[in-house]
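Predict the 3D structure for this chain.
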Amino acid sequence: MNNNKPTLEDWGEWRLIDDIIAPLAKSCDPLTETGSDCAYIPVPECHIAVTADVGPKPLLHRLKGYEDDLVARGWLAVVASASDIATSGAQPLCLLNCTDAPPNLPVADLQRLLAGYFKACSDFGFRNAGGDIRQGTELSMRVTAIGTCLHPYRIGRDKATVGHILYLVGPAGQFMANYLIAESILEGNTNLPLEIEDILRFPRPQLKAMKSLADRGLVVAASDTSDGLLGALDNIVRKSRRNFHLTLCNEMLMPDVQQAANLRGIDPWNIFFAWGDWSVAVAIRSADESAFEQVCRENSIIYTQLGVVTERNEEQEKKTATVDSGHLRDLTILRNENFTKEGFNAKLSDHLNHLLTTPLFR
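Done. Predicted structure below.
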């Protein structure tokens, strides 16, 4: 092995996509799409939105008494792919899965995993389209999700431009806040309240909300918050070759976020921007601001205005924020990225520490 050759860790996920995967894909198929949450395939009268993901191990499994909650794991495997479909504003169509299981796995364990998978499939409006089960070294599930887009346009990450307004569709920091609160509750050997347990076991993608907005032509670009809210915003401006400025105020912070921050002695904004909520960051035209907020109110959609898309300076790609009308500050992009030392799949404890304790504002 030549130790001088760069490794995946040296480059990280996004450089691999930009410098290796996208060029190779386009060399074989010039019309291929890479770098967005979904791919779009035109068929008569609509587009088909397609995505695939590996079901992550739930953070819930770190909590005492929930280490083997395989129903929640099966559910989350669906959420990871269904959330990508949500970004497209598509109508859920079907799911397929490929499940690996070791031969010594108890049958009841596989049954619980699949129970969570099929329950989420049904609750989110997807048809089961089958799949495959095979022997593997450990239990894992890969899910392919397909939706139909009846609106005549494609929602990717690449069409945001200067002056577009950035919103979040769905909650911010609710999942991570309740996880931190749950840790404290369980340390005292007390059972979790059902509302906290439901948030942690059964998160929900923004399928109906995004379809309502997309059907009215109100979303220009979108990315889900699977890698964190800052990760989603970074996805949009990176693909659109722009930057962003956020205008933040403490009124945006949910009570759960403030409570968790006080319990742990951390900045509530680190919790606000963390992953786990499966919300969607979107860019909209400034002229559509009133219509966007009206649709959200009419459909009881949780939404938060975050900031605006700004011009990209090739020599200085800083993202900025103001908090409670304070001074302009540079923003540290805290997110998950595969193949990095701070990534979710490297060492979860290090990743959480990085996400929750690294100063956001400079």
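The chain has two domains: 35-149, 165-357.
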